[in-house]
Amino acid sequence: MAVQLVQVCVLLWARPGATDALITYEDKVLALLGDHGGRVLQRARTDGEEGAPTEVQLIEFTSRAGYDGFLTDERRTALSAERDAVAHTDLYPVELV
To answer: Rounded CA gap, 26 and 30, in Å?
Structure first.
């Protein structure tokens, strides 16, 4: 049986003045990926000018169950107050080519 990878592109915009807090929050939650068969393939930041997202991430999970488990991980959801640094998130399923 082949492994069904789940790959996502995540775009994150920080609230005004909260770029450092967004980065700190993301550092914490991304550290949980490995517990769910996930990994960061690429993480990049922009200057946020002209409506650009603050951070762009490409993330891969070995299964849909791992992805779902990450989203509902109690350690992640317990950080919801810190997530307030994030003004907006767009998430897109992708296939890397």
So the answer is: 6
